[in-house]
Amino acid sequence: xxxxxxxxxxxxxxxxxxxxxxxxxxxxxxxxxxxxxxxxxxxxxxxxxxxxxxxxxxxxxxxxxxxxxxxxxxxxxxxxxxxxxxxxxxxxxxxxxxxxxxxxxxxxxxxxxxxxxxxxxxxxxxxxxxxxxxxxxxxxxxxxxxxxxxxxxxxxx
Length: 157
Known about the structure:
Elements: H1 2-23, E1 26-31, E2 38-43, E3 50-55, E4 62-66, E5 75-78, E6 85-90, E7 97-102, E8 109-114, E9 121-125, H2 132-154
Parallel strand pairs: 1-5, 1-6, 2-6, 2-7, 3-7, 3-8, 4-8, 4-9, 5-9
């Protein structure tokens, strides 16, 4: 009787772990053209709706790590197939949102790409290298929320 209870508890713990892992990941399909849930223009000159500063060290609003383990990732980037949401990445033209990327200076949101240690978000990609534009595609909702929160705090009386 005691063994049955232990087995049931083990199955419950295993099921809960799998369930939590399944719902804590978001699969993002990256497209170059076509119809998608959101279209993003990522550019490094001119003006954008939100400015994003990519950093290699120091303090940042968001920290991101690239992982080669799909199970540990918060965001899974795919370039074919289906996912939770799809994103068209463009370097110019009309889009739902335009992001101006920077390597130095000031921006609405800063992102630290960390090689080791703790990261707020882990990203897995089916390609070997993850571009800054793909990081933006994965984190676009987080970036929009962080920029909105910073602007709200800046104008608070």
